[in-house]
């Protein structure tokens, strides 16, 4: 049995959950409440009464742009998940919203991966871009993501130049770094292994590098659809 909490529960009501055969608790604070504060209060009461039940954050997505909604979801639920408060997320369209199922799915999994709760796709690290960037960072990131986004456990860094790039991508498995105008250097870990690759050949070179190190797998059809949706979201 799943129960719904809206953030207004009393101490006694939360305590009563201990006597119920609950499978999970769906946490959906009332719109008039601060989601962060109301949610933290519920978790504090659960801990106080030693109630160990999976808690799923239930969020209704209002009508709007996909990028804005993804940011809103991350800001509302992400801090709680990062603090270990919650076991999952459930996204639902509001009556006037028309977000597709693929958007809701990829956004949910993306949030869980960003909070280090579940690894379902490639981890991408990118610099914020500045005047030294030697290629269109957003376009290249989307291109690489569309072709390599189906590799859970693999981390790829995409850096616009060599000034800060190697330091910022220290934890990545592979690096794609602007080395000169129109040229890209490829890294394995912190070591540059190929220099001066033309931009138009660099993505293929990165994939070959991943294959050489035994970390490549061909995407399943459903994975291809999900990766394409993720790339479209990044360029929105």
What structural class do you assign from the helix and strand content?
A: alpha/beta
Oligomer: single chain
- Record field, number of beta strands: 9
Q: Percent of residues in beta strands?
A: 15-25%
Low-pLDDT ranges: none
Portion of residues in helices?
Answer: 40-55%
Please write the string of helix (H) and strand (E) elements.
Answer: EHEHEHEHEHEHEEEHH
Give a brief outline of the structure.
This protein has 236 residues and is an alpha/beta fold.
Describe the structure in your own words.
The chain has 236 residues and is α/β, with parallel strands linked by helices. It has helices spanning 11-16, 35-48, 66-82, 101-114, 137-148, 165-168, 199-212, 221-235, and strands at residues 2-5, 24-27, 55-61, 88-93, 123-126, 155-159, 174-180, 183-188, 191-198. The strands form two sheets. Strands 5-6-7-8-9 form a five-stranded mixed beta sheet. A four-stranded parallel beta sheet has the order 1-2-3-4. Strand 5 (123-126), helix 5 (137-148) and strand 6 form a beta-alpha-beta unit. The radius of gyration is 21 Å and the shape is elongated. It starts with a strand and ends with a helix.
Topology (SSEs and partners):
Layout: E1 2-5, H1 11-16, E2 24-27, H2 35-48, E3 55-61, H3 66-82, E4 88-93, H4 101-114, E5 123-126, H5 137-148, E6 155-159, H6 165-168, E7 174-180, E8 183-188, E9 191-198, H7 199-212, H8 221-235
Helix pairs in contact: 2-3, 3-4, 4-8, 5-8
């Amino acid at each position: 049995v799943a129960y719904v909490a809206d953030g207004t529960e009393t101490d006694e009501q939360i305590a009563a959950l201990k006597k119920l055969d609950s499978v999970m608790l769906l946490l959906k604070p009332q719109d008039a409440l601060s989601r962060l504060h109301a949610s933290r209060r519920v978790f504090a009461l659960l801990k106080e009464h030693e109630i160990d039940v999976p808690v799923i954050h239930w969020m209704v997505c209002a009508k709007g742009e996909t990028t804005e909604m993804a940011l809103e979801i991350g800001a509302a639920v992400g801090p709680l998940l990062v603090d270990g408060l919650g076991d999952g997320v459930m996204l639902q369209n509001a009556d006037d919203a028309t977000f597709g199922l693929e958007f809701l799915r990829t956004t949910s999994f993306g949030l869980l991966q960003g909070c280090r709760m579940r690894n379902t796709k490639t981890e991408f690290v990118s610099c914020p871009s500045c005047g030294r960037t030697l290629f269109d960072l957003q376009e290249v990131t989307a291109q690489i993501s569309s072709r390599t986004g189906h590799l859970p456990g693999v981390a790829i860094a995409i850096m616009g130049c060599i000034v800060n790039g190697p330091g910022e991508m220290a934890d990545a498995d592979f690096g794609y770094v602007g080395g000169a105008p129109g040229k890209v250097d490829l890294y394995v870990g912190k070591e540059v292994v190929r220099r001066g690759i033309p931009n138009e050949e660099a993505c293929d070179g990165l994939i070959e590098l991943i294959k050489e190190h035994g970390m490549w797998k061909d995407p399943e059809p459903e994975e291809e659809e999900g990766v394409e949706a993720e790339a479209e979201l990044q360029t929105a």
